[in-house]
Amino acid sequence: MSHMEDPAFIVAQHALSWRAGWILVLAGFVSGAAVGLRFHDEGFWGGYGSFRRRLVRLGHVACVALGMLNLLFALSPWPQPGTPAAGFAAWALLAGGVGMPLVCFLTGWRRAFRHLFALPVVALVAGVLAIVIGASQ
Questions:
Q1: What is the per-residue pLDDT across 102-118, written as a single tens digit (0 to 9) for each?
Q2: Which has the closest alpha carbon to 94: 118, 51, 61, 63?
Q3: Nearest to 58, CA basis, from 8, 106, 119
């Protein structure tokens, strides 16, 4: 039996997406609460509509949304757990789920990081394509 057919491997793969999803949701709540402590200050980080504040808000929302996407994947029966498509999708969604908020927060700090947005986008698109292709096999 290959490691991909091993029930322990399949459970570990499922658990990775499940744990990552909940950790991302928690990170989104915590980062949102931290930024929210100053929501009443009109001038905080350049004001509500400033580039910096918009990117930080986007980062905390991305944590929650991509955490839920990882959870949804963890609970999905397709692609079949333990297949190469499922393994690739799990890692790609994890990379995108961590990378997108990180790039948002970094871009809010220094604009030059905006050039990195393609990395989490490519990871997320690749993960979803692996899910769609793997589900049809």
A1: 999 999 999 999 999 99
A2: 63
A3: 106
Residue 1 within any structural domain of the chain:
no
Please report which residue ranges of the chain form alpha helices under DSSP H.
Answer: 7-36, 51-75, 84-109, 118-135
pTM of the predicted model, to two decimals? Answer: 0.89
**Tens-place pLDDT, residues 63-81:** 999 999 999 999 988 898 8
State the total domains in the chain: 1
Structural domain harbouring 61: 7-135
73 located within any domain: yes
Q: What is the DSSP letter of 44?
A: G
Angle between helix axes 118-135 and 84-109 (nearest 10 degrees) is 160
Let me know if residue 32 belongs to a domain. yes
Assigned token pair, 33: 């609460």
The Cα 50–Cα 10 span in angstroms is: 45
